Design the sequence.
């Protein structure tokens, strides 16, 4: 698996506007091979901003790379720069992670023999 994250510093008082942009946009992620899940995370508040992170899980890095060069990516990000002066301090910070170890509780574990 591959996890792609973008961190956003959203100006204090603009959190609701930022969240509305994300809630109202079409992501097109479901159209891409290898897309697993997406979350928008709200983090700690600082003096001048609140930290947010978009968190996308892909089957592998290649599926993520295909997303970044797709028509769906271009459509999903067409309005992204329009909201920056109002909401975001600086540029989003991308971080990509190869999953080394993963556990979840969605499926029961097989009994050890």
Sequence:
């Amino acid at each position: 698996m591959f996890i792609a994250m973008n961190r956003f510093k959203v100006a204090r008082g603009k959190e609701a506007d930022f969240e509305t942009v994300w809630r109202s946009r079409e992501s097109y992620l479901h159209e891409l091979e290898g897309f697993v899940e997406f979350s928008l995370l709200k983090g700690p508040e600082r003096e001048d901003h609140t930290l947010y992170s978009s968190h996308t899980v892909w089957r592998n890095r290649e599926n993520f790379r295909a997303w970044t060069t797709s028509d769906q990516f271009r459509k999903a990000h067409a309005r992204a720069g329009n909201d920056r002066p109002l909401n975001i301090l600086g540029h989003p910070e991308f971080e990509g992670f190869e999953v080394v170890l993963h556990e979840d509780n969605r499926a029961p574990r097989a009994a050890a023999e």
User: Anything to note?
Assistant: The first helix runs from residue 15 to 24. Residues 2-98 form a domain with the Alpha-Beta Plaits fold (CATH 3.30.70.100). The chain has a mean pLDDT of 89. The chain has one domain: 2-98.
